Amino acid sequence: MKKLINQPEDAVKEELEGVAAAHGDRLRVHTAPNYIVRADAPVHGKVALVSGGGSGHEPMHGGFVGLGMLDAACPGEVFTSPTPDQVLEAAKAVNGGAGVLLIVKNYSGDVMNFEMAAELAEDEGIEVEQVVIDDDVAVKDSLYTAGRRGVGATVLAEKICGAAAEQRWPLPDVAGLCRKVNANARSMGVALTSCTVPTAGKPTFELADDEIELGIGIHGEPGRERRKLAPAHAIVETLATAVVKDLPFGRGDEVLAFVNGMGGTPLMELYVVYNELHTLLEGWGIAIGRNLIGSYMTSLDMAGCSITLLRLDDELTAFWDAPVNTTGLRWGV
Amino acid sequence: MKKLINQPEDAVKEELEGVAAAHGDRLRVHTAPNYIVRADAPVHGKVALVSGGGSGHEPMHGGFVGLGMLDAACPGEVFTSPTPDQVLEAAKAVNGGAGVLLIVKNYSGDVMNFEMAAELAEDEGIEVEQVVIDDDVAVKDSLYTAGRRGVGATVLAEKICGAAAEQRWPLPDVAGLCRKVNANARSMGVALTSCTVPTAGKPTFELADDEIELGIGIHGEPGRERRKLAPAHAIVETLATAVVKDLPFGRGDEVLAFVNGMGGTPLMELYVVYNELHTLLEGWGIAIGRNLIGSYMTSLDMAGCSITLLRLDDELTAFWDAPVNTTGLRWGV
Amino acid sequence: MRDTVTQGGLTAWLRAFAAAVARDREELTDLDAAIGDADHGSNMDRGMQAVVGKLGGLSPDEAGVGVGALLKTVGMTLVSTVGGAAGPLYGSLFLDMGKAAGEDAELTVAQWATAVEAGVRGVQARGKAELGDKTMIDALAPAAEALSAAAACGLSLADALRRTAEAAAQGMKATTPLVARKGRASYLGERSAGHQDPGATSSWLLMQAAAEALASDAPPDRPRT
Amino acid sequence: MRDTVTQGGLTAWLRAFAAAVARDREELTDLDAAIGDADHGSNMDRGMQAVVGKLGGLSPDEAGVGVGALLKTVGMTLVSTVGGAAGPLYGSLFLDMGKAAGEDAELTVAQWATAVEAGVRGVQARGKAELGDKTMIDALAPAAEALSAAAACGLSLADALRRTAEAAAQGMKATTPLVARKGRASYLGERSAGHQDPGATSSWLLMQAAAEALASDAPPDRPRT
Ligand SMILES: Nc1ncnc2c1ncn2[C@@H]1O[C@H](COP(=O)(O)OP(=O)(O)O)[C@@H](O)[C@H]1O
Ligand SMILES: Nc1ncnc2c1ncn2[C@@H]1O[C@H](COP(=O)(O)OP(=O)(O)O)[C@@H](O)[C@H]1O
Ligand SMILES: [Mg+2]
Ligand SMILES: [Mg+2]
Ligand SMILES: [Mg+2]
Ligand SMILES: [Mg+2]
After folding, report:
1. Do B288 and B255 form a contact (C-beta atoms < 8 A)?
2. What is the pTM of this model?
3. ipTM of this complex > 0.85?
4. Does A116 touch chain C (CB under 8 A)?
């Protein structure tokens, strides 16, 4: 394993120290338990957005804390959801009296830990809503499984709901908006290589030099299918077809297209992917109204990408365009 | 070789098509010859900043075109400097009557191609100045070599000079400012893995599982020394010591600290690196006034990072803080 | 050998479990890499190290509280240090065992069986997994059942714990051919078959550690090893 | 076999060089990977493919212009398609050869030698490299010198070109032990020793192609192969 870290067990702790040292002007990093809040928290009268999950997905979620997006992020250990006390303390730190929305990615661990946190927060008199994001079409949704995973839609939901919260929307409405984003977004990813969890010290899975894993999760969970390496246009067509058919997106729809890098894939390739996606969607009569291209939700050093489409309407577009000021996403301020 | 591309020869072309499709609202992408200009170019009465270099370093330079930074970027083939006609046409497209500053990284190819372009532009009556950036301390500067390479300082110079140009500084002054940035900045990088040039199809060099290459160039040029893999604190100490001793930076200096990812290294590790750098500099009495952490000047899929320090004064700090609106760097607008 | 569960026994058990997790950490992570995200070993190790630290740091006062309070402390520690799926699940196991155990200083085999059953029900309430979903429940539920049966037959603590561990081992092994329906492995669908579940494996280690150490009568303040 | 350099000979030469570059593309890139950035093969191949395309696309009018004009077209094409260090350098070589060749329809061996010398001076003016800096100059300069000497002795074109190629080969091989002082390889310092210079290698291919094809009398409009 080759990483720019010290002791594998200390990677998250030292990363957070780095964040604190770098962004003390805009973020407050709390340790034991670990959480990151915007420097001006709590914002009085504003619904507070709290998210979190395992570390290793940076800039998600810590890089999305700030005006117009999250009030707090709770980083767990690498690929391990945060614990209830982290979420509880973060919620207490950012609650501005208008309640707290917990944005949770649909993984058993995340769901259970946030659920326990919500119970504890309610015990302390904080109004809490939870929305579980589950946009990954690679996983068959079924009553008999843990359901679909939460991936790229999380970033979009955090941005859009953050904007609504800045406009002082009340908690049930912000939560409703979050469910709307989730209901209108679908994603799928592909891995060219495995990631390596620092404490594991070796790749989570092995892919031959000519193999890719379709439908990969952001934690290096194996996907649903292993295939031979293919040109970008074939890979993008597979991902985009699965995504488009699932909702389904249709002729005349306007979408936000999010091409996300997995951590080990450079921007150059993401633009090649975007180019293919753009051509495909154009052919299918789906217009790209907005786009986001970059490594915003990573899986450590995994090479690969994911594609997320969100069906836009005027409301979602306006909230997407609203000012945001975080270390990971910034415009309008 | 595993990349999200189609034919290796087409990667740059298709990347540019992706950029054009994604950012048509803010950029114009010209092909044959290839260059990217801000949508509102030429800006009348403003010194135009033109840079460029081989592709494979994204977001540098195309991602830095826009208000407050570059007017045009000329992407060459992967790791191959652009040709004089690209630079000439770009200069003509953005010249707003106040002259053109060419920001050139010190590589034989870049220097010669930009030189030819400058000659051609002057023949066409455009006022041109060139500044060559050479901040890489890994390479011994000597009369008998091609001198030091240009690396991280390029990003900082483009930002800072772009701000001065927006304030309508005249050409000689913007060029002088660019030289000042270069004179006050030093960098050094490390590779954990090689990059793979698409048309070469295999890694440029081989590193054993327990080896790193110190003083790597951003084109996968071998560094000056191969070492055993070491913890982040040891690697950062090596890089920072070389950088600090070279200028030298000293107790009481205030610096901009730029921790740059090489393309295959995720943000998490860059924050671990920043944390080490911050601790070291604090110990040496050097204050970090500003910072930039992320993959802004990449080397395809190489894993590794570089550290750049720029000694700040009020002027440089103010220009750094000035608004910038590009796809790669954005704040204040 | 004692025939009741005491604070001393619990402490010895938890230390033995922590040691087993530390020893098999890489194996647990490898199992999780195959059908999950390669962190179960480090998650459990981090949690059990914290538990052992807590045990060592208990003041004589706290050390003197009942079996139930100790179990609850363990549960809270796991909840706040493990994270992931295993954190709330093992946390619930111990919290609900603790609630059922009450304030007594020691438990009979039957009381212990009742506590374990309550703990396992807690895991199921939290995780909604059924037998056969390829989770830790596949080791825990048969173990709790075997323990209750052993208690009903009046077996000694040592014998009951041995049967419990055997049942957990059976359950753990039985997860291999299953297709996962809960947890991260369920994303794999059919491809999850052919791999032993990591959580069932750590649950077997837990029961195995009980068989080795819970009936021992080491004092609670034995220095950390 | 002709004893003068004609448009037909030039065209055959450039096609032979393009074919050699395409054939040895990977080797050139490998040499560049060792001490540079792994693109010399693809750079030269891209450029020479463009040149060959240009040759095929020349209108009869253009095809009829002098040797000098043809060389300048080649130079401009290389400048605008190769990029990197090799683009301006090979571009200068051909541009300055073209200037020296003037408007004649064919050149004697002596005139050809003068043109090549001018071209090599152009490379040196652009790149500032001296003999021994481990660059293409190490192949080009001895080649130009050998060519001039051969011309002075009145050798036939074919013999002169053979000696030229031999001198280029010597110069190329001599780059191996050198420490680079120009170009990207110079960043390596002492570690650049022990590797043959990629640019010197492509320059040898250029002179080798001349020996094979420049004295041939294929018509300029021979269909592309
Ligand atoms: N809903 C559930 N009910 C019971 N056990 C579960 C459930 N979800 C996951 N598990 C168990 O948790 C184990 C994984 O734990 P761990 O790897 O620590 O957490 P995570 O899956 O969040 O990475 C699985 O092997 C399985 O035994
Ligand atoms: N200043 C120079 N003068 C002469 N030749 C040079 C000079 N710089 C580089 N070269 C030649 O160019 C070759 C490299 O060409 P190429 O790889 O295409 O360009 P780049 O180095 O820009 O990637 C070197 O092997 C060397 O022979
Ligand atoms: Mg996990
Ligand atoms: Mg090059
Ligand atoms: Mg796991
Ligand atoms: Mg090269």
Report:
1. yes
2. 0.94
3. yes
4. yes
